Every structure is written in structure tokens, then in C-alpha cells.
Amino acid sequence: MTYTSRRTVLTALAAAAVAGPALDGLTAAPAHATGEFDTYSSNTDLYTRLAGQEGVDFARRYKRHEFLDHSYTERYPYNRTTILAMHGGGIEMGTSELCLGIAGYHPATLAPADDGLGVHDYWMFEGLRSSNNRELHVTAKNNDDHVCRSMVRSSLNVLSLHGCTSAQAGTSDPQAVVVGGLNKRFRTLLKAEFDAVGIAWRDGDELPDLAGVNPNNPCNLTMLGKGGQLELTTELRAAMYSVNTRKGRAGSTTQKYWDFVGACRAAIAALHGDPDQIVL
């Protein structure tokens, strides 16, 4: 049995509603991995100042799977990994759909994957505006959403998805991904799987702003104190959808999308076989 919930409680905590202009697709402003250009100091700040705008300017979606063990002698599965898209929707386009796919759900139908690799918990924050979604960006280390924080702190692993420009990634192939996070083993597995499907990558150690190594980054707030972060270039994300709009992406995924999703899911499955993934 599973359940899905949408958080709306915090929107009632503030008095004023603040509306704003909007953006999507390839015309989006460049992504920023730091808080230098952020309008809001935290998610709580955003929820407070945009009270009443959830479902209009922004949305939050998540899924936590129910696991049960009532046996005295047998052991049953438990969740190890959570997938994040902290800047989904029109903020860093394409990351919401990737979050769902890597978690094991079709982004359009939410049908579970049939690849035998199971499903994972997920959490996402999405910009819903028609323009100026960049204003909704809260840098990762300042994400204090209570549901997001509770999910990552109760997970052994996190894979967090972000968007960057090819100039920021500094790769010769504009369709590339920067592999970061404090879990070096996870990074090694991800890079090997990207090699297998022909996706160009760069190690986050070479790009401090995109490395995802801040200990307060939710990708590293796991039970193991380390996780994985992926920064995908605009060109790579654009190649994953034939209709590159917020409404069109989920139903127009290309082979590039499925190659990327498959690579991430294979890396997660391999990671789950490691000794530090065993709960005694």
C-alpha cells in the first residue's frame, strides 16, 4: 500500500499573498548553484511570503512508500533512497519528470516501472508560473522544507536533480551532466552507467559551485551523511523531451530521457548492494 500527499499547511501561516510573473522551457534564466541571486532566503521564507499562492505560483509533490514488518523472524524491504527535484517545474525544466522516472514512475501516467528495480520515495518543489520561475529558486543548502528534510534524514541515500548551463558545466559536449555529492561510491556508479549509455559527464570535484558537497545540502543530509547530486545542462534536458514545455514534457519523453533514467536506476540498484546499505 502506498500514499501520496501534497503539503499545503504552511500556506496558512502568513497574512499576505504575493503574486509574480513567470517562465518555462529554453528561455529560462541561467541556473545558479548558490544563493547569490535568490529572492527567498529559505523555503519557509518563500511559503510565508507567497502564502495563498500554492497551486498557482508553485507546488510541492511527494510520495513516501509504506513498508511493514510485523514478523518476529522474517525481514522485509525498507526504503533506502529518496529522489529530489528541488527546482522542478519551470525553474530548472525537466527535473520534475526525471525525479518521477528515476523514482520508478512514468512521468505522465505515474505507472510503476516494470524493470524489476522497484520504486523509491520522492519529493519535488515546482514552479508553475508561465514566466519568471527563476524567482522561486531557493538554493539547496537553504531548503528547510520540513517534509523534504524528514525524508532525506530517514534515507540512506539521496539523488538530487538540478539544472545548469553548458557554460557552467564547462564540457565540450553541451549535452552533459555534472556528477556530485559527498557519496563518492555513488558518483562512481553513476559515471559508469552514464558511460554505458553514452551520456557525457564531468566530475563535480572540478566545479565547486556544482559539486553538491555542502554538508547542509539535502542530498548529504542522509543517515550516512552523504549522497548524490546531478546537474544536467539545459541542452541535455531539452534533448529528453520532444515537447519542451511544463505541460508537454511528461508525455513526450525521448530515448535520451529513458537512457538517463535507466542509468540512474541501475546505479541506485548497484549501490543498494553495498555493505553500508544493510540495516541490522
Key words describing this protein structure:
single chain, 280 residues, alpha/beta, Aminopeptidase, 8-stranded mixed beta sheet, 18% strand, disordered N terminus
Topology pattern, helix = H, strand = E: EHEEHEHEHEHEEHH
Give the beta-strand count.
8
Number of helices: 7
Termini distance?
24 Å
**What is the structural class?**
alpha/beta
pLDDT averaged residue by residue: 89
User: Which homologous superfamily in CATH is the superfamily?
Assistant: Poly-gamma-glutamate hydrolase, zinc-binding motif
Shape: globular
- For the record, what CATH class applies? Alpha Beta
Low-confidence segments, given as residue ranges, are 1-31
Q: How are the strands of the largest sheet arranged? A: 1-2-4-3-5-8-6-7
Strand content: 15-25%
Radius of gyration computed on alpha carbons: 18 Å
Number of domains: 1
Topology:
Elements (H helix, E strand, L loop, with lengths): L1 E4 L37 H7 L8 E8 L15 E9 L5 H9 L17 E7 L18 H8 L3 E8 L1 H4 L6 E5 L3 H13 L3 E4 L24 E6 H5 L16 H17 L9
Parallel strand pairs: 3-4, 3-5, 5-8, 6-7
Antiparallel strand pairs: 1-2, 2-4, 6-8
Helix pairs in contact: 2-7, 5-7
Structure characterization notes:
- The protein has helices at 43-49, 95-103, 146-153, 166-169, 184-196, 234-238, 255-271; strands at residues 2-5, 58-65, 81-89, 121-127, 157-164, 176-180, 200-203, 228-233.
- By secondary structure, it is an alpha/beta fold.
- It has a single domain (2-22, 37-66, 77-277), classed as Aminopeptidase, CATH 3.40.630.100.
- The protein has an eight-stranded mixed beta sheet with strand order 1-2-4-3-5-8-6-7, sandwiched between helices.
- Residues 1-31 have low confidence and may be disordered.
